[in-house]
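If you are new to this repository, start here. Below is one unmodified record pulled from the training split, so you can see the exact layout before writing a loader.
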Amino acid sequence: MAKYTSDFDDYASELINGKVNFASIGQFGTKVLYLAPIMNDILLQNHDVVSRMIDNASITDEAPQNYDYYQKNQWQPHCTLAVNLDEKTMITAIKSVIKTVSLITAKIKTVALVECEPYLELPEYTKTIKVRKEKNHYLPFSVKVVSKIIVEGKPDFKDKNYVDDTNYYEEQVLMFYAKSFDDAYHKAEKYMNKQVSFPSHKNIYGQTVRTDVLEYVNCYHMFESPSNEEPEIYSNIYSVSKNITDEDVLINRYDYYVKDEDQVIHDEWEKSKRKMILNAEFQKKR
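And here is the target side for that same chain:
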């Protein structure tokens, strides 16, 4: 529980209150009967916050029990009406409920951490969700991060793919809901600090591989939350002289330019290079 309570206040501050309409009943097998809400932006945004809290807490530890039920696109929001039913009592409960159930409007006002099996409420981790003014709503940002992947130690063996004259860098674009650019950078730093604290791994040559953050390059404010209709999460426009060719731009920006007919060859070369940094547990020695 400690891994969830440590950052609970930070995540709770991102939640929003608002109205939710319950329009139907549902069941989990024959054991649980519940009211089912109509999905809306309030539920989706709050679930995104909770999902990130669980994911971040599980980076260096085992995921919680029934974790799959809480992931995006699998989560079923509900208000429990009855538990520990069997087939007979479930039928009785449904017959009783359908006589009185109608559209119910509720308001999300608080958030709480509870322990399960047995169920236990934790009063010290029950928070009132503050009403937010429009100007204080969290907005979508993305932060570009450049890290260096460092290979250390003497290899146990060498093969045709082994190299010791290459540095490895990773570019990442991270998305956060934040109050401002500074807040987005802060969230990116907090996330990456957890990432780099994750135990290092061994490559197939027995060497230690770890990651250091070099720079938080820039931050991009998305005016719309990403979706299938608005999929862009990052953009960076830069200018160069007209005397420089497109190929030279790609070479200088990304260190290589590959023609379409050479792409397969390049992919194989890139794949062999990555053997130096990949976790030995996920690849076979060749």
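Two things worth knowing about this chain: The first strand starts at residue 18 and ends at 28. Helices lie at 2-5, 8-12, 41-57, 87-98, 181-197, 246-254, 263-274.
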